[in-house]
């Protein structure tokens, strides 16, 4: 976003490009027009911040856009703008006012009394500043002065969303250029925190790592890629699944052969998935299979075997049946002997159903890919 004014650095310092005189000049050049001001400042002097606040308020059509890190009197200056938004990833801080105390001298008791009196006056002045600024925040946010004073006393960095929730900022906007600048400013702050700490500005909050979802709303474990992969391999190695796949492949080949024999691309099916053939198609298949046509089908009953069988033929059948029983008994005995004394070289599995199917590495890779 393009700004007519950009507030950076320490507000009120002589090296700051956005001094009050400069800001007032730009505002005068844009009377009756919208003015967009970019803010990225840790703060500065209360006097200069209040002057900017009033200049923006007097113009009446100034829009503040916070990016990077804004704190202290910078946030007060924004309150004079018509609207305030903040770029995603930026930070916002309001806190109590402070003053520089720097003395190194030899003092007697009278000097100390005078010094303490001066410090007490400065303390009272700071309390007055805090009270006035808390009311300004309250007017913006709709919260009570006490609530705003409590946040100032807390003095922690707020995220963009927290600043919006508190009411200090109206909305969050996305801008690639400003987001990049925000990252650079944040890194600069972290690298130069020692100087910022001396100014009373707290460190940035530690980023919270998102907790990985390990259970659903009912407390059941969520499926992971590893679980799905292992289950897919188990399904692939399971014999019943392999047999089902083989049966499906066999059925597919049979269907293809049927369509090729009838010289058609597809066939209608009934509710059970069975093919529906026309009379001509049925006749064609019968001819290919060597079956007689329906009109030549002999519906006469099959000839009955004669009731009276020769006696010697019955004896032969009984003998063959007994021989078969004896052979089965001998086989059973051999199997029992082998089970009791198995040969060390014999690796035969008596239960073919327990054998693992032949699965190639390509099959496993394909199963994982499907997952």
Automatic annotation (TrEMBL):
One cellular component (GO) term of this entry: endopeptidase Clp complex
GO biological process annotation, one example: protein quality control for misfolded or incompletely synthesized proteins
One Pfam family matching this protein: CLP_protease
InterPro entries hit by this protein: ClpP, ClpP/crotonase-like_dom_sf, ClpP/TepA
Region (Disordered): 288-358
Biased composition (Basic and acidic residues): 288-300, 308-335, 343-357
Gene Ontology MF, one: ATP-dependent peptidase activity
Gene3D superfamilies: 2-enoyl-CoA Hydratase, Chain A, domain 1
Sequence similarity: Belongs to the peptidase S14 family.
Protein name, UniProt field: ATP-dependent Clp protease proteolytic subunit
Organism: Hallella multisaccharivorax DSM 17128
């Amino acid at each position: 976003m393009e700004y007519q004014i950009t507030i950076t650095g320490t507000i009120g310092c002589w090296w700051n490009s956005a001094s009050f005189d400069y800001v007032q000049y730009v505002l005068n050049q844009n009377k009756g027009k919208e003015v967009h001001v970019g803010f990225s400042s840790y703060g500065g002097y209360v006097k200069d911040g209040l002057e900017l606040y009033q200049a923006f308020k007097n113009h009446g059509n100034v829009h503040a856009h916070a990016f990077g890190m804004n704190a202290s009197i910078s946030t007060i200056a924004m309150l004079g703008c018509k609207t305030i938004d903040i770029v995603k990833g930026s930070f916002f801080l309001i806190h109590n006012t402070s003053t520089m105390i720097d003395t190194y001298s030899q003092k007697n008791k009278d000097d100390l009394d005078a010094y303490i009196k001066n410090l007490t006056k400065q303390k009272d002045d700071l309390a007055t500043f805090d009270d006035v600024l808390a009311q300004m925040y309250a007017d913006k946010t709709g919260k009570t002065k006490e609530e705003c004073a409590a946040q100032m006393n807390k003095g922690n960095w707020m995220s963009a969303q927290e600043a919006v929730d508190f009411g200090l900022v109206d909305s969050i906007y996305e801008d690639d250029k400003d987001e990049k600048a925000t990252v650079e400013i944040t890194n600069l702050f972290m690298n130069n925190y020692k100087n910022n700490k001396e100014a009373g500005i707290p460190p940035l909050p530690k980023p919270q790592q998102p907790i990985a979802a390990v259970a659903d709303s009912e407390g059941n474990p969520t499926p992971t890629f590893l679980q799905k992969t292992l289950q897919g391999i188990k399904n692939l190695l399971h014999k019943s699944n392999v047999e089902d796949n083989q049966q499906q492949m066999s059925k597919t080949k049979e269907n293809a052969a049927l369509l090729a024999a009838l010289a058609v691309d597809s066939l209608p099916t009934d509710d059970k998935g069975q093919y529906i053939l026309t009379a001509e198609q049925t006749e064609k298949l019968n001819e290919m299979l060597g079956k007689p046509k329906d009109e030549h089908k002999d519906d006469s009953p099959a000839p009955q075997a004669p009731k009276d069988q020769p006696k010697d033929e019955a004896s032969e059948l009984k003998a063959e049946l007994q021989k078969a029983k004896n052979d089965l008994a001998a086989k059973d005995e051999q199997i029992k002997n082998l089970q009791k004394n198995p040969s060390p070289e014999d690796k035969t599995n008596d239960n073919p159903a327990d054998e693992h199917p032949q699965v190639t590495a390509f099959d496993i890779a394909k199963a994982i890919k499907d997952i």
